[in-house]
Amino acid sequence: MFYNYKNKVSVFLITILIFLCYLVYLENSRGDVDGTKEDNNGTEAERTLNSAPFDIDKLSESVVREQQVKAFNATSLQLGVGDIESPVSYRPEFISPLEWEVLRRVSGNEEDPEKSLANYINHVRFAKQEELWEQLVETNEVGRRHSMAEQLLANIPSRVKNNNISVHHAQRLQMKLLSDLVEDPEKRRSRISEEADKIGVIFRVEKIVSVLGG
Questions:
Q1: Angle between the 61-74 and 113-136 helix axes, to the nearest 10 degrees?
Q2: How far apart are alpha carbons 29 and 170 in whole angstroms?
Q3: What distances in angstroms separate CA 107 from CA 3, 18, 115, 172, one per listed residue?
């Protein structure tokens, strides 16, 4: 079931490693300009987010790939849960060590590092669960697929609110999920309207549902 995801991991690793190297370069450059890499004026949040050791030179592609797949698999257990709140004091199981390092470094440059870290983590989980749902569509695991669909629907409003996804993407995803989740056309129309309202969208659903086969 995770064959397609494993094929995508190598491309992901190349991209994320390049990005991480760039972040390390920026951090070192800033330290050289300032004459120091840390001073007493830094906030407690910044010190916390940058305290954990991470040696990029010791990264093994095979180990990192294994960690990525393990973290991806862990998202299937994240059902019936809401957003993770800040501050985030430990790495969630569905976030790999490499992802954790990148998210910490990126959020450390934001105005509110702790809040940004929680937002990034929630979005990564959402993206992985969307990928997992798409893979489940190709299987006969209806129960798992529907549970994941409900989880995604519950989290779409938060992702829109936090500007992680556009309203357009949210609408399209809602309709894709509900076309599989709700078989009865009338109930589907009603549910589409309900979910659209949660992201601040009001529209006539009859024409759109007809496209989905309702």
A1: 80
A2: 39
A3: 31, 17, 8, 29
